[in-house]
# Entry
Amino acid sequence: MNTVLWIVFLPILLFVIGTFMLGYSRKYVARIERRYGPPIQQVFYDIFKLMSKKTNISHGWMHDFAILMLLGGTLLTMYFVPVPGFHFFAQYGDMLVIMYILLIPALGMALGVGETANPNGSIGISRALMMLAGYDIPFVLTFIGFAMINHTTSMYELIQVQQAGGFAGWGLISQPLLGIAALIALQGMLGEKPFEVMVAPHEIATGPMTEMGGKFLGIMMIQHAISIVVELTIYINLFLGGAVNWFDYLLKLFILFTALISVNAVFGRFRTDDAVRFMWKIPLPLAIIGILFIIF
Amino acid sequence: MDEKITQRSVWEKISAKLSKRSLWMLHYCTGCGAIELPPTMTARFDMERFGINPMVTPRQADILLITGYLSVKTLKRVVLTYEQMQAPKYVVGFGSCTINGGMYWNSYSTMKSLDRYIPVETYIAGCMPRPEAIIASFNELINKIDRGEANSWKDYYNNYNFYKENQEHTFEGPIETYNDIKADAALFNIK
Ligand code: SF4
# Structure
């Protein structure tokens, strides 16, 4: 019964958290730019407005279907990532499964944008897949290293191990090289500056979102809100000792997100090749050295 | 007009209250006015306070801000852009040139009155208007949406023949756009 409640309400809960976090990030960036900024619930207004648009031009059934694949992939990932109080599905899918299904949204987006046949969209998708090659390799490597020390690939067990070790047991403290590599990869995964090459409004007109209007964009924003929380939660579970209760969880989310958007607010954007090169020059060697430390 | 407003259902009123807080703006700046927009967006006047953000593609935008004069060539692009936007969409004419031709009244190549080609929601008079005027007109637009009066976008679907005739008269021939406006109106049930 409890599990059913969690399954029903977890998407809504994470959506609300995610939208407030996005609103907070807009306010935060505005304050850094010495503006007043929008109200913190602004993203709710945006999503409501998009969902209540009167016309929604579709470019074909693949366009419609891919949007659902995008949202579905994110929701699927969300269920496999343990949050405090809910780890029912975590026993069926370990970290390998999560790494695998994390790619579904990107592929869904590629299919849908391909149907819209907009050149900006195609450039955006190719950039997104380039970035994926950039950040995914360091991220997977850090995870492999982490699984090697603890002899498990289950995310729930990794949380247990870290919490047993107290503060010193946190992944970021016990394996700082892996932690830092994953932190940089996380910035790329969230698509925040300086790795914002996929969206890049001033170059390629928001890339994959170019042809998305109305409800399509609304669903993409909902997906974005949830996926931000999910990706941050993966990092918290692997490197910040998971979370014992919801207060702990929200606090860690807040601090981690603030750190990432602070970087976002003051940096420009890398070129695509520079971004991938950076990912392979800094986080990748860090992760490899971290793994070598573990092996020897 | 009054009857229409009283006919609004509760849901439409709530919907207007919420969606007026989020308007995304596509600015079409081939006239002179583009220089007034950076101060409107940045720290001095900060229009993001009202939920108005610059957007880069017509599909995502709600407001089409036309700054200044349009020549025959740019008008064609504006019509194409306007038809790609998703309704409800609002056109804001910026500067005297969009209202009556302004100081280009005698020019052979510019359009005089924008609202003969696409339905315009609000105008900003002035040559050129200051950021205060832009913010004021956006506030007026927000109030209009709240009152349920910002319905000029429906004209384009309902009186499409009028607009198309004016466009074709100016372009001296049929204009090829990528949207079938009448089919869209039927498909999305716009009255
Ligand atoms: S109204 Fe004045 S400032 Fe604006 S386009 Fe016309 S001449 Fe230029």
